[in-house]
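Researcher: Please translate sequence to structure tokens.
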Amino acid sequence: MSVIVYKLSFDKGDAVEFAVDTERQSPTEGIGLKPFWTRLGHHQCPNCPLAARPGRYCPAALDIEHIVDSFAHVESHAQVDVEVQIGGRKHSKRTDVQSALRSLLGLSLATSACPVLSQMKGPGRLHMPFATVEETLFRMVGAYFVGQYIKARKGDMPDFSLDSLSRMYEEVQTVNQHLKKRLDDAVLRDANVNAVVSLMSVAMLVSFSLDQQLEELEPFAIRTGFGAPGTQ
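Model: Translation complete:
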């Protein structure tokens, strides 16, 4: 299923639910009046290829505007019970609002129409709620190599050096930084902002010294042929 549902229940009994369609199409124009911080020209990312003009909105900001509004007055440390429905599977966790939003916003942004963030749409379809940095790194690198393999099969020039992945994460960092500036202007409490800061930290950790981090993932690698353990 393309729809992933997050349900957040607070201790006082209130609950909110968000359905994220990973295959959605997000319009950026002709959608009526939206908050000022969603306008494309408001803290527009320097690496954004879209042209700012009246009535045009940032696709990433549009996709998270309803989430941001729901948590605009919530402190990041507030505790919440989270259920995530993905097809026939349900994930549940008790955590703070910041961690819940990091997972929800990460999914929403990766599957948005943002020209930069949408590069992560593939892994977004196989969303893993509350993923660790190690799990995120393994999934992203795996998805990257699948993409390069497909390029090679189609006769294009693949890049198995991870240089393209590093450049992508640099672009993602730029988007996250300017998205934080938007949220700084939009909200009174810190839950949304801290969630984006947390996303920035994860992106930085994933992109920093990829070669060295991949060596640490060696225990999880598939080994084939005579180099596999136990074949000597």
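Researcher: Any highlights?
Model: The two ends are 44 Å apart (CA to CA).
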